[in-house]
Structures are given as C-alpha cells and as structure tokens.
Amino acid sequence: MKRKAPLSPFEAQRAAAKRAALNALKRARRTAEKAGVELSDWEGEFLGSVVDRVKTYGRAFGDPEKGAPGQALSVMQTAKLKEIAAKAKGEKKGLQRKPFRRKSDD
Asked: pLDDT tens per residue, the chain (106 residues)?
C-alpha cells in the first residue's frame, strides 16, 4: 500500500481553515436550533450556501482580495457568521456607537 505524500504547510493550513469554517457554521445552526431561536430566511440560506461552497471549492468567496489566501471565509462572511452565532446564543448587540456631541464651552 502506497503512503500519501505529506501535505505542504499551505495545503495543511487551507484544510484546517476549511474544517474550522465548516465546524463554526454547523455550531451556529445547531446552537440556534437548541435555543429555539428562529433564524431569518436570509440567515438560513446564508449558512446553507456557505456550507455548500466551502465543501465544493474549499472556500466560500471567489475574489482573493476579500479574504486571506489560506482562509475559507471572507472577512464579511466571518462577521455575519459571528452575528448569527451571537443571535443564536441570545447575546445582546455589542459595540453601540454614541452619536457625536457638540463640545461644550467650559
């Protein structure tokens, strides 16, 4: 039986990023189901389509400028995934910006 050649460090990093992305997507959906949180149609479709693209292509974005070369999700996809996971956990919105105020003449 022939032994497989070891993966190059770049290929190993891509495979690890793919596994991590798939696990995070599954975890977000599973957390929402367990908590009874109703995801919107858009959020459910987003999770499903991203899972399909990561399984098929190894990453979910086509433009290399939208994410790091070894990553499976783009920057915006990662941010949306974090928002969905926070919604599933029931966490409140994080950073809320305060409006600008006029400086007082003190």
From this structure: 778 877 788 888 889 999 999 999 999 999 999 999 888 999 999 999 999 999 998 888 888 788 887 889 998 999 999 999 999 888 876 566 777 888 776 5
**Residue 79 phi, psi dihedral angles, 5° rounding:** -65, -45
Buried b / exposed e over 61-94, threshold 16 CB at 10 Å, is: beeeeebeebbbbbeebbebbeebbebbeeeeee
Q: In degrees, to the nearest 5, what angle opens at C-alpha 28 toward C-alphas 25 and 32?
A: 145
Count the Cβ atoms, other than its own, within 10 Å of residue 44: 14
Angle, helices 75-89/9-35, rounded to nearest 10 degrees: 30
Place of tokens 């479709």: 45
